[in-house]
Design goal:
Helices cover 76% and strands 0% of the residues. The protein has 8 helices and no strands. Helix 5 packs antiparallel against helix 6 and helix 6 runs antiparallel to helix 7. The relative contact order is 0.18.
C-alpha cells in the first residue's frame, strides 16, 4: 500500500521521467514481430482470457484440492476488478496520447489489465509457493507467474494505452488482492 501511495503521489504531480523513459523505450522497440507477441501478452490480461483462466483454475482447485481455494480464484479476480474500477473513477487520470493497435477506453490509472493480471497470476504464484513442496515446481510456477504479470504490464506500455506508473499501480493493487486471498485461505486459528 505504501508503494501504491508513492506511485500515486508521483502521478498526481504529473508524468514522471520514468513514465516518459518507458514510453520512449516501448516506441523504440516497436516492430512487426514484437507487436504480435505483445498483442498476445496483452490478451493474457483481457477480460475474456482472464475469465476463462479464472474459471478453469477455480474448477481444477475445486475438484482436485480445495473448494475454498477454488472459490478464491473468482473472489480475487472480482475484488481486483471492482477495486481498479473504483480507483480509476476516483483518480480520473487520462491515458497517454497516441495509443495504437488495441482497443482501450476509460481512465488510465491504475491499469485494469495489470491489476487483474497481478491478482490472478499473483495468486498462482502464492499458491504455487504455498502448495508445492518441490523446489523445481515452485520455481516453475513462480517464473511463469512473474513472466505473465510483467509481460501483461509491458504490453500496455508497448501499445501506449498506459504509462508505467499506471501499470506499477495496477501491480500493487492486484498484488494486494492476491495477498488478501492468501491470508484468508491460509489463516490458521490457534
Amino acid at each position: 500500500m505504501l508503494l501504491f501511495a508513492t506511485i500515486t503521489s508521483l502521478r498526481v504531480g504529473g508524468y514522471a521521467a520514468w513514465d516518459e523513459a518507458a514510453a520512449d523505450a516501448a516506441s523504440n522497440a516497436r516492430a512487426a514481430g514484437w507487436t504480435s507477441l505483445w498483442r498476445t501478452m496483452n490478451d493474457m490480461g483481457s477480460t475474456t482470457i482472464v475469465a476463462a483462466i479464472t474459471l478453469l483454475s477455480a474448477a481444477c482447485w475445486w475438484l482436485l484440492r480445495s473448494r475454498k481455494i477454488g472459490v478464491s480464484f473468482v473472489g480475487v479476480v472480482l475484488a481486483a476488478y471492482v477495486l481498479q474500477a473504483a480507483l480509476k473513477s476516483a483518480f480520473g487520470f487520462e491515458r497517454p496520447d497516441g495509443a495504437w493497435g488495441i482497443a482501450h477506453d476509460g481512465f488510465g490509472y491504475p491499469s485494469g489489465n495489470a491489476t487483474i493480471a497481478a491478482a490472478l497470476y499473483g495468486w498462482w504464484l502464492l499458491l504455487g509457493w504455498l502448495a508445492l513442496r518441490g523446489r523445481v515446481g515452485r520455481i516453475v510456477v513462480v517464473a511463469i507467474a512473474i513472466a505473465l504479470i510483467a509481460a501483461t504490464g509491458w504490453s500496455r506500455i508497448y501499445f501506449s494505452v498506459h504509462y508505467l506508473s499506471d501499470v506499477c499501480a495496477g501491480f500493487c493493487v492486484g498484488g494486494l488482492c492476491a495477498l488478501c486471498a492468501a491470508t484468508i485461505c491460509f489463516w490458521r486459528r490457534t
